[in-house]
């Protein structure tokens, strides 16, 4: 009886295997093209069909990607010099600007900031075309394979269109492991992605870099400034407010330096990344924060004649650091290509801090004005001040 129970399961397994095969080698193209080999790529709902011609070392290929919207772009590429995006020689399909289907072209990728501009590849592509139907894009092309072999690293991607220009593809999940080695002569493949891939490792370090900097420059620094501005107004909070302010700022500096160092390491390990504005702001932040910390150790006494000048310098550098820090957090989100959820979450924190600051400003400002007036009127109660006032009116 138990053996009979295995029969339906075996049939279902065979049907599932057959359906998978039909989705690849048995696929019927609209132009009735036939290919000798077909593989289902591990991610992004993609398939690669090809026929290798040993006589002239060419390959007729068809790259298919399903579940594609009419406002997306797709690409497939050979990378002859590396294992990732930079250096890829791409076949790109984008929506036709005049409407009606997709068009295909070639694009060499030299940096992570590419916009997939049209250009010649390092090898010849005699023909290339694309079609779009039923949420599926197919890129047809003939490749004159490089003379150094038949096994190459292949990369494939998809992403949104920004007007008529391909936008940045997602920087998480399947889009970061869409890489595989294909031998066009034998049909053998070797996965280039996976959880232990270099891409996943880089993304993990980028995430750590982003979290460290968002917490330090983007949150702790503003909170520390708010403590110095509002908590010290409370007489009973002196000198506790100073230690809270210094502790918050110092913690932000230490965490920020760790994030800055992580970013510098990422920059040196990720050749081709050109987020120059983000990098320059980060270096400026490190310099300003280090200068601010150094100035704290040479702070003049309250009664010293240079104390007002030091206070002015401390305030200007502090608020400049905060403004640049918040700006660079957003620049970092753009560099990571994160979804809007990340920006919205951080924006929620900044808005909350802003609301708290407005409320505290409304509460403490009248107190500060009142104390200032009392301080200005206090000398008038002394005899000397009264004589000086009387003399000046004569």
From TrEMBL:
Q: What is the residue range of the signal peptide feature?
A: 1-21
Primary location group: membrane
Q: Does the keyword Transmembrane helix apply?
A: yes
Domain DOMON intervals: 44-159
Q: Tell me the cofactor note.
A: Binds 2 heme b groups non-covalently.
InterPro entries in the record, alphabetically? AIR12_DOMON, Cyt_b561/ferric_Rdtase_TM, DOMON_domain, UCP037471
Q: Where would you find the membrane-spanning parts of this chain?
A: 208-228, 240-261, 281-300, 312-333, 345-368
Which keywords annotate this record?
A: Electron transport, Iron, Membrane, Metal-binding, Signal, Transmembrane, Transmembrane helix, Transport
Q: Where in the cell is it found?
A: Membrane
Q: How does it sit in the membrane?
A: Multi-pass membrane protein
A molecular function annotated in GO for this UniProt entry is: metal ion binding
Limits of the Cytochrome b561 domain = 170-369
This entry carries the following GO cellular component terms, namely:
membrane
Give the binding site residues for heme b. 209, 245, 278, 314
Cofactor(s) for this protein? heme b
Give the protein's function.
May act as a catecholamine-responsive trans-membrane electron transporter.
Q: Which PANTHER family match?
A: CYTOCHROME B561 AND DOMON DOMAIN-CONTAINING PROTEIN
What's this protein's name? Answer: Cytochrome b561 and DOMON domain-containing protein
């Amino acid at each position: 009886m138990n053996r009979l129970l295995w029969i339906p399961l075996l049939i279902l397994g065979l049907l599932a295997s057959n359906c998978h095969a039909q989705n690849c080698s048995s696929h019927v193209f609209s132009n009735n093209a036939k290919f000798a080999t077909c593989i289902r790529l591990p991610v992004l709902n993609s398939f690669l069909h090809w026929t290798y011609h040993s006589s002239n070392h060419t390959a007729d290929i068809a790259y298919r990607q399903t579940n594609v919207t009419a406002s997306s772009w797709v690409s497939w590429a050979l990378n002859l010099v590396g294992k990732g995006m930079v250096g890829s020689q791409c076949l790109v399909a984008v929506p036709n600007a005049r409407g009606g289907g997709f068009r295909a072209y070639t694009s060499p990728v030299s940096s992570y900031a590419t916009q997939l501009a049209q250009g010649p590849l390092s090898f010849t592509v005699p023909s290339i075309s694309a079609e779009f139907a039923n949420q599926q894009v197919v890129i047809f092309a003939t490749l004159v394979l490089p003379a150094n072999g038949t096994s190459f690293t292949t990369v494939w991607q998809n992403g949104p269109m920004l007007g008529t220009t391909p936008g940045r593809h997602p920087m998480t999940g399947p889009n970061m492991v869409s890489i595989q080695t294909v031998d066009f002569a034998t049909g053998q493949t070797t996965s280039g992605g996976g959880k232990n891939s270099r891409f996943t490792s880089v993304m993990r370090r980028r995430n750590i870099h982003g979290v460290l900097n968002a917490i330090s420059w983007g949150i702790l620094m503003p909170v520390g400034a708010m403590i110095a501005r509002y908590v010290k107004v409370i007489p009973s909070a002196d000198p506790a407010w100073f230690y809270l302010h210094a502790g918050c700022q110092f913690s932000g500096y230490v965490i920020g330096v760790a994030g800055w160092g992580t970013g510098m390491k990422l920059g040196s390990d990720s050749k081709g990344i050109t987020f120059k504005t983000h990098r320059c702001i980060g270096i400026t932040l490190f310099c300003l924060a280090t200068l601010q910390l150094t100035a704290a150790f040479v702070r003049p006494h309250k009664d010293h004649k240079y104390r007002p000048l030091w206070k002015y310098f401390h305030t200007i550098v502090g608020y400049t650091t905060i403004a640049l820090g918040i700006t660079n957090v957003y620049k970092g989100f753009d560099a990571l290509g994160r979804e809007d959820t990340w920006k919205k979450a951080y924006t929620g924190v900044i808005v909350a801090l802003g609301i708290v600051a407005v409320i505290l400003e409304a509460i403490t400002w009248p107190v500060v004005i009142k104390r200032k007036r009392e301080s200005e009127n206090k000398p008038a109660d002394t005899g000397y001040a009264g004589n000086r006032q009387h003399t000046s009116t004569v």
